[in-house]
Each structure stands twice: as C-alpha cells, then as structure tokens.
Amino acid sequence: MSPKTAGSVPFPRKIRSEGKKCRKVYGMENRDLWCTQCRWKKACSRFLD
C-alpha cells in the first residue's frame, strides 16, 4: 500500500464557485439578464460546470 491518500490529488474536482455564473458574466448592473436561479441565489442553470 502506498502512503498517498485520495485527498493528496491537487485538484480532484471543480469547486462549484469556480465556474462562470450570470453574476460574473453580466455583472450587478445587468441583473435582468441573469437566469432565475441566479436571481434567487440558487445553482445557475445557464452556465453548467
């Protein structure tokens, strides 16, 4: 058995907040362009990870 664990991988998976979301793409000035989920602070449906 090797002493390495599964947690030692530098980037095992993408963190949810890393992906582009409506807020980052359109900005606060253009909230009317955001998807409904982003307006309600839910998981973005437009820019999927």
Automatic annotation (TrEMBL):
Going by the UniProt record, its keywords in alphabetical order are: DNA-binding, Metal-binding, Nucleus, Transcription, Transcription regulation, Zinc, Zinc-finger
Entry's localization field:
Nucleus
Chief place where the protein resides = nucleus
In the UniProt record, does the keyword Mitochondrion occur? no
Q: MF terms per GO, please?
A: DNA binding; zinc ion binding
Top-level lineage group: Eukaryota
Q: Can you list the GO cellular component terms from the UniProt entry?
A: nucleus
InterPro entries referenced in this protein's UniProt entry, alphabetically? CR1/CR2-DNA-binding_regulator
Q: What is this protein called?
A: Uncharacterized protein
Species this chain originates from: Branchiostoma floridae (Florida lancelet)
Q: Source organism lineage?
A: Eukaryota, Metazoa, Chordata, Cephalochordata, Leptocardii
